[in-house]
Automatic annotation (TrEMBL):
<dbReference type="GO" id="GO:0050778">
    <property type="term" value="P:positive regulation of immune response"/>
</dbReference>
<keyword id="KW-0051">Antiviral defense</keyword>
<feature type="signal peptide">
    <location>
        <begin position="1"/>
        <end position="21"/>
    </location>
</feature>
<dbReference type="Pfam" id="PF15177">
    <property type="entry name" value="IL28A"/>
</dbReference>
<keyword id="KW-0964">Secreted</keyword>
<dbReference type="InterPro" id="IPR038326">
    <property type="entry name" value="IFN-lambda_sf"/>
</dbReference>
<dbReference type="GO" id="GO:0005615">
    <property type="term" value="C:extracellular space"/>
</dbReference>
<dbReference type="GO" id="GO:0051607">
    <property type="term" value="P:defense response to virus"/>
</dbReference>
<dbReference type="InterPro" id="IPR029177">
    <property type="entry name" value="INF_lambda"/>
</dbReference>
<comment type="similarity">
    <text>Belongs to the lambda interferon family.</text>
</comment>
<dbReference type="GO" id="GO:0005125">
    <property type="term" value="F:cytokine activity"/>
</dbReference>
<keyword id="KW-0732">Signal</keyword>
<dbReference type="GO" id="GO:0045087">
    <property type="term" value="P:innate immune response"/>
</dbReference>
<keyword id="KW-0202">Cytokine</keyword>
<dbReference type="GO" id="GO:0007259">
    <property type="term" value="P:cell surface receptor signaling pathway via JAK-STAT"/>
</dbReference>
<protein>
    <submittedName>
        <fullName>IFNL3 protein</fullName>
    </submittedName>
</protein>
Length: 185
């Protein structure tokens, strides 16, 4: 008797747990709601990585003047599909940079942010494939994407690394904005 009463409770608990771990709304195609408010643990890991990188930059006296993340427009001005394309491009750059070989302690510091950002990128790609598979970016986004492609070829890897890591909270805010699916600031 006890086992029969416990089984439905276990199924209900597991179903609820999996539903929050893998949010999926069949009416909307997907859900990025878990990125609207990032967990404090994830934010701390990203902040620790950024501070560690800033220390490395100070010690190495490395300078970079890339203006890759400086835009004349705000992500809130973009349509939701444009926001998703923008964030995917930012996450691609950031995860690529964080996946490169690095000094041992910095490599350890960036493991958690890399895992988190990689998961966000995969979730975003899943949404894009179901919601806007053939979306054409707006003119301002298309211009920024071209600028990104030029930077990937023209900038040094050190400069791309500095741009991606120093602007990591900018990328996280853009992710939050894409997840909101409405006006954001």
């Amino acid at each position: 008797m006890l086992c029969l009463g416990f089984t439905p409770l276990l199924v209900l608990t597991l179903g609820t747990s999996l539903g929050t771990a893998f949010p999926w709304d069949p009416l909307k195609g997907c859900s990025l709601s878990k990125y609207q408010f990032l967990a404090p643990l994830e934010m701390k890991a990203v902040q620790k990585m950024k501070e560690h990188f800033e220390d490395i930059m100070l010690l190495s006296n490395r300078q970079c003047n890339s203006r890759l993340f400086h835009r004349k427009w705000n992500v809130a001005e973009l349509s939701v599909p444009d926001r998703m394309v923008l964030v995917e491009a930012e996450l691609d750059l950031t995860t690529t940079i964080l996946g490169l070989p690095a000094e041992r302690t910095f490599a350890e510091t960036r493991l958690r942010p890399l895992a988190f950002l990689s998961q966000a990128r995969e979730d975003l790609r899943g949404c894009m494939s179901t919601e806007a598979p053939s979306h054409q970016p707006s003119g301002k986004l298309r211009h920024w994407l071209q600028k990104l492609q030029v930077a990937k070829k023209a900038e040094t890897m050190d400069c791309l690394e500095a741009s991606a890591i120093l602007h990591i909270f900018h990328v996280l805010n853009d992710l939050r904005c894409a997840a909101l699916r409405e006006q954001c600031t």
